[in-house]
Amino acid sequence: MNMSRSALLQRLAATGPFGFGASTLGNLYRVIEDEAARATVDAAWEQGIRYFDTAPFYGFGLSERRLGDALRGRERDGFLLSTKVGRLLVPGEAGGERHGFHSPMPFAPAYDYSYDGVMRSVEASLHRLGLSRIDILYMHDLGRVTHGAAHDHYRAQAAGGLRAMAQLRDQGVVAGIGLGVNETEICADCINDADLDVLMIAGRYTLLNRDSEGFFETCRQRGIGIVGAGVFNSGILATGTQGGSAYYDYGPAPDDILRQVAAIEAICARHAIPLPAAALQFVARHPAVTQVVIGTGNAARIRQSAELAKQVIPAQVWRALEELDQATPLS
């Protein structure tokens, strides 16, 4: 499927109020039944959502299988689909909780960013999805945040994988390539030596974290798309400080984050704006962001999120939030 980058990004921007992140279809943190998974995808479709993102890692193949089953009967040119490379699934033990997933799939993830690993991963993903093609292919969780001391090893290995991804794009197997990560440092590195189309970046530009603004502007100037993920910073910007256990960046929220969220909540409350509506729209309104994604395994929450995306937020709310950021710089 040959498509220019600008045409791909225009299509991505027009895929609805937000994209559907299918990590929850892999039984992330809790088990959901096949029927609930299908109902969630159906609800997303009913809300006009036409971008769906998954990965082999999500439930060790379960998310890809469920998403493909839910989308297979739909017109293939009517939606965009992304999945990821960087982990191969090898035979393993099924059941229990592994990496946060409660999956019955008898596989285990093994990092492989090599040329051959990417080619094998794409072929396996197409089989699990049961779909004719993948539109966007991301290299998953490359970078020092994930790999620590092993970063240099995997970064060197990824040179082959990025070459494979570029070949798949040139051959029309995929329309676009990029990274799907939780940091911007590896993105800044890779865009200097690989021709990437779009970056999925989780949690690095939110109401609580604006450190990536400079990098986002670089991407805007170079015509590289950004998909904003993790817009709720693991939940605290959805639940607020009164929602019981508050999580920030995959762990319990520290006191300074709770104080920052409380200040944001107070601004939203004065204008009767739901906190998650502000969190979602804050990321989406950045000029460098092409689309945002939200992950949920609940059809009702898909519908609620669609309403949040429609919420009219007055300019004075954005000004107040900007003034808050300038008064107390957010991390």
Describe this structure in words.
By secondary structure, the protein is of the alpha/beta class. The chain has helices spanning 5-13, 34-46, 62-71, 115-129, 144-147, 151-170, 185-190, 213-222, 236-239, 255-270, 275-284, 299-310, 315-327, and strands at 19-21, 51-53, 80-85, 87-91, 107-111, 136-140, 176-181, 198-202, 225-229, 247-248, 251-252, 289-295. The strands form three sheets. An eight-stranded parallel barrel has the order 1-2-3-6-7-8-9-12, surrounded by five helices. Strands 4-5 form a two-stranded antiparallel sheet. Strand 8 (198-202), helix 8 (213-222) and strand 9 form a beta-alpha-beta unit. Helix 2 (34-46) crosses helix 3, helix 4 crosses helix 6 and helix 11 (275-284) crosses helix 12 (299-310). The chain is globular, with a radius of gyration of 19 Å.
CATH fold node name of the largest domain:
TIM Barrel
Cα gyration radius (Å): 19 Å
- Structural class, please? alpha/beta
Question: How much helix is in the residues?
Answer: 40-55%
H/E element sequence? HEHEHEEEHEHHEHEHEHEEHHEHH
CATH class placement of the largest domain = Alpha Beta
What is the terminal separation in angstroms?
41 Å
The overall number of domains is 2
CATH superfamily of the largest domain: NADP-dependent oxidoreductase domain
Strand content: 15-25%
> Architecture of the largest domain, according to CATH?
Alpha-Beta Barrel
Mean pLDDT: 95
Shape: globular
Please state how the strands of the largest beta sheet are arranged side by side: 1-2-3-6-7-8-9-12
* Unreliable runs: none
Q: Give the beta-strand count.
A: 12
| Helix count from the secondary structure assignment | 13
The major sheet is characterized as: 8 strands, parallel, barrel
